[in-house]
C-alpha cells in the first residue's frame, strides 16, 4: 500500500522527518575483512551498553575498543563521537584518518581540540588505500598521504594522492564514519511519485514545507542531507507552522463548501 494513500486516509497532514542513515562505504581492497564496522553499529552498541542492555557483540569483544588499536575513518561529528567513545572504552591507541587538513575538517573544532587533549592521534591528509588482514580479520591499514589540489565547483580544494607515499598503520578495529546519505525514500515508502533530488533528499517548497504530494510535508536531514541539530529544530518549527496554516485553510475551505451547499 502506498504511504500517501494509506496514511492520507487516516490523517489530514503527514510530516516525513526520517533523517539520513545510509552509511557511506569505503570500497577498497580488504573492505570485506572482519572487525571493520560502520560508525552507527559501534556507537549504538556503546550507547545500549551504557544504558545497561546486554549487547552480545560488545560483550564478546567485537564492538568493544578496550585494549585495541582503533582506526576511525572520517572527519565529521560522527567520527568525533567514535574516537572519543573509543578513548572512553580504554582503547590502546586511537587514530583518526581525514583526507583533508585540520582547517578543512567538517566536525566541530572544539570537539577536535577535546579529542586531541584526550589522546586521539589525527592523521591529517591521509586516505585509506587498502586493509590488510590475517585469518580474515583486519590487522593493518595502508594509507596514502594526500595534498590539497585545485578548488572544485564548490570552492573546496580537492584532496589528491601523493604518489608513492603509502604508509601502514596497525588496526585491530576500523570504524567507518564517512557520513550518511538518504535512504531511497520513494521505494522504502512505496511512493514512487514522491519527488527527490539527485542526492535522494526530499524536495519541498521552502515556503510551504510541502512535498509534491498534497498534505505531505518534510523537514530536517531528509530534506537538507546530513546536517546539524539546530537546523533540524528550526525546520521542525517551520514545518509545524506550515502544517497549521495548511490545516486551517483546509478547514475553512470545507466550511465554505458546506455553507454553499
Ligand atoms: C552519530 C551522529 C553524531 C552527530 N553529532 C552531531 C553533533 O555533534 N552536532 C549536531 O548538531 N549534529 C550532529 N549530528 C546530526 C544531527 O543528529 C542531525 O542533523 C539531526 O538529528 C537531524 O534531525 P532529523 O529530525 O532530521 O532526523 P533524526 O534526528 O535522525 O531523526 C530521524 C528519526 O526518524 C526515525 N526513522 C527513520 N526512518 C524511519 C521510518 N521508516 N519509520 C519511522 N521512523 C523512522 C529514526 O529512527 C529517527 O528517530 C550527528 C548525527 C549522527 C548520526
Task: Map the helices and strands.
Elements lengths: L2 H8 L3 E3 L5 E2 L12 E3 H12 L5 H4 L9 E5 L3 H12 L4 E5 L11 H9 L3 E3 L2 E9 L2 E15 L5 E5 L5 E4 L2 E4 L3 E2 L3 H4 L27 E3 L2 H4 L4 H32 L1
Parallel strand pairs: 1-13, 3-11, 4-5, 4-11, 5-6
Antiparallel strand pairs: 2-12, 7-8, 8-9, 8-10
The chain binds flavin-adenine dinucleotide.
Notes on the protein architecture:
By secondary structure, this protein is of the alpha/beta class. Helices cover 33% and strands 24% of the residues. The protein is built from 8 helices and 13 strands. The protein has helices at 3-10, 39-50, 56-59, 77-88, 109-117, 185-188, 221-224, 229-260; strands at residues 14-16, 22-23, 36-38, 69-73, 93-97, 121-123, 126-134, 137-151, 157-161, 167-170, 173-176, 180-181, 216-218. The strands form 4 sheets. Strands 3-11-4-5-6 form a 5-stranded parallel beta sheet. Helix 2 crosses helix 4. The longest helix is centred in the C-terminal third of the chain and has 32 residues, at 229-260. The mean pLDDT is 94. Flavin-adenine dinucleotide binds next to helix 4, helix 7 and helix 8. The site of flavin-adenine dinucleotide has 14 residues, from helix 4, helix 7 and helix 8.
Amino acid at each position: 500500500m502506498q504511504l500517501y494513500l494509506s496514511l492520507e486516509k487516516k490523517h489530514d497532514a503527514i510530516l516525513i522527518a526520517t533523517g539520513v542513515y545510509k552509511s557511506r562505504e569505503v570500497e577498497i581492497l580488504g573492505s570485506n575483512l572482519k572487525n571493520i564496522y560502520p560508525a552507527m553499529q559501534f556507537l549504538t552498541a556503546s550507547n545500549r551498553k551504557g544504558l545497561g542492555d546486554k549487547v552480545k557483540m560488545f560483550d564478546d569483544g567485537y564492538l568493544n575498543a578496550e585494549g585495541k588499536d582503533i582506526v576511525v575513518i572520517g572527519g565529521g561529528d560522527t567520527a568525533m563521537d567514535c574516537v572519543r567513545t573509543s578513548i572512553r572504552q580504554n582503547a590502546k591507541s586511537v587514530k583518526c584518518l581525514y583526507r583533508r587538513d585540520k582547517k578543512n575538517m567538517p566536525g566541530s573544532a572544539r570537539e577536535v581540540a577535546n579529542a586531541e587533549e584526550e589522546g586521539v592521534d589525527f592523521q591529517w591528509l591521509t586516505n585509506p588505500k587498502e586493509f590488510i588482514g590475517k585469518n580474515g580479520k583486519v590487522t593493518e591499514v595502508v594509507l596514502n598521504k594526500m595534498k590539497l589540489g585545485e578548488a572544485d565547483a564548490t570552492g573546496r580544494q580537492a584532496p589528491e594522492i601523493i604518489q608513492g607515499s603509502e604508509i601502514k598503520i596497525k588496526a585491530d578495529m576500523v570504524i567507518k564514519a564517512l557520513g550518511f546519505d538518504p535512504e531511497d525514500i520513494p521505494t522504502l515508502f512505496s511512493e514512487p511519485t514522491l519527488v527527490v533530488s539527485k542526492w535522494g533528499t526530499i524536495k519541498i517548497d521552502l515556503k510551504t514545507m510541502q512535498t509534491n504530494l498534497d498534505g505531505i510535508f518534510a523537514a530536517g536531514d531528509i530534506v537538507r542531507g546530513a546536517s546539524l541539530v539546530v537546523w533540524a529544530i528550526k525546520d521542525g518549527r517551520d514545518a509545524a507552522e506550515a502544517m497549521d496554516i495548511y490545516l486551517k485553510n483546509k478547514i475553512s475551505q470545507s466550511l465554505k463548501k458546506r455553507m454553499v451547499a
